[in-house]
Amino acid sequence: MTGIYEESMFEQVKWEIGMYCAIHKCDMKQWQRGQISRVLSDTTVEVVLLDFGTKEIVNVICLRELEENLKRMRKLALECSLVDIRPAGGSEQWTATACDLISCYLTGAVATIIIQVCNENEKDATQPLPVKIFCKDEAEQSVDISEYLISKGLALRNRRVHKIDTSAVVPEEYLEVGLKQESSVLNKLTPETESIPKTSVPKQEVLFSRSEQNETKECKTKSVLKSRPDRIYKPPLVPDEETFQALISCIGDDGTIYTIPKSLEKVLNVLMADIQSNFKCLGLLEPYCWRKGEACVIRGPDTMWYRGKVTEVVGGAIRVEYLDYGYVEKIPQCHLYPTLLYAEIPPFCIPCQLYKTVPIGSFWQPDAVELLQELLMARVVEIHVMEVINCSEKCLEDNFEISFEELLLEVETPVLPPYTLPSPPLPGECFPVKVKHLVSPNEVYVCLDSVESTEGQNDTEDGRVDWNSETESLDQVLRRCNKDVDSLPFLTDFRTEMPCLAEYSDGLWYRAKLLSIKDFDPVTILIQFIDYGSTKKLPTSRLRQIPPVLMQYPAQAVKALLAGFKPPLRDTEKVRIPYCPEWSMEALWAMVDCVQGKKLFASTLTSSPEFTIFLYNNEQKLVHLKLIEMGLADLYE
Known about the structure:
The protein has eleven helices and 34 strands. The chain is of the alpha+beta class. The chain folds into five domains: 2-72, Roll (SH3 type barrels); 80-157, no CATH class; 181-384, SH3 type barrels (Roll), CATH 2.30.30.140; 419-465 and 558-637, CATH 2.40.50.90; 466-553, Roll (SH3 type barrels), CATH 2.30.30.140. It has a five-stranded antiparallel beta sheet with strand order 4-3-2-1-5, with no helix packed on it. A five-stranded antiparallel beta sheet has the order 17-16-15-14-18. It is extended and about 100 Å long. 24% of the residues are buried.
């Protein structure tokens, strides 16, 4: 190419997207093949280098028209994508951390690429080539880049999905629009709002988090709510008339004009009034993994609720679209609620484009968008429908007959029951315990230590459990699992209360359960070690799927409230427990001194609703008496 273009002279060419060119790389003193990907101005374009895959923004002076014989040669750079993984954190976009990690690991490296295409019919030249990439690390060991990203918490495995043949599907006919339909649309609102009690929504119809096992929270709403709705909103209702009047509600940055037909304006007002009166909620305050395209309810700046959907997950904020008005904005997660609201009523806002009007440079400039807003916003206009594009896409469902055993084989993380808890001793009975973890002076996690209390009772028929033998068996299984921990798959299901194995700071793996997702970039999970009661925030790389054999043992640490004392009314200590400010840190350390490494006994006061005990030392004295003597607690009368 240097021989062809070295002596060439610049000629004025009107460059357009998709045109082939020769680009002069001044820093390398080379001519390379390229293709125009974006026209930024009359003098600046973005070019994709066909033989390297990189993009360059250059002045048109550095470009020449590509010779025909050079166009026929296939490009040397293959566009590839890693298969079977997706970005972690709920976003459809890869984070900068993940991109930097891949770039650092692969740039300039010699890698083995395995193309994941079964036959020629599955190939699509317009899509990146699905591949697996293996590269050697510092120890000359072959590393799967996909598995490496998963181990770093930057990617998750894709679940296997079944393809649906849509060739024989007949599109759903459009619903008729007009003032005559106002009564029928309003009638659709009535069954949904009258069939559900006003006080709360039934558990089987409300899922407020990713976990189907999460305890449902009461919410004063009459609408059917779902956390991960299988359905989607219908497409907007397009009037049958070729000409109709509409109100311009929004102008998008891409030049899209959002309109609301005047014939449906009253119906929209009725729907909005119904949403405000029936949906009473504070928004989702718990951690939640949002997905692009997910339906939601939005609390707008005017404190009103709107139907919407997620368009992008941006760090701690979510970019959403108001379905009935067309607005797009970025708002905090606490102003959203994951639900499909009035799914049978299509969005009232119709996105439109100016017919046969293309912006200069193939994208709308900000000043052009501002002009459209000045001319059209909040005005009633007459719309002439010239062409209807993709206004009806029927939602398909794939039904399978599958046994429970086959279903278990399909999921990456086995469906496991929650951990069982040991039955508490009878009220009034004294039994030995070990304090495993302190949350506050009057909230602890104890292990039922039956060395003395069950001695000679192992052969009784009262249904008691020999906790020592259980613990020994559990320890043996845990030791065996620690030896083979590398063979255990990583955890891929992050629902609340999900059993798992978690790596502690000593490098050993212990039984645990998930409490919540704390961070999303990178993903970190708050877990609780169920045999000790302590909690820890860990990356996903330190969580493994738990072998089912470990689920047969009850949790060794039981949460217990200590009776007989309470926080002092007058406390001069200034340093407080952050998560329990009614207690001072001095009281917590005093209680640690009372129980750490001591032989303790307990007697059950109540087992419901909270397991409450009196805690005694080896001299059969209540341990909290020392705190009362020090003025760090008051006697509970």
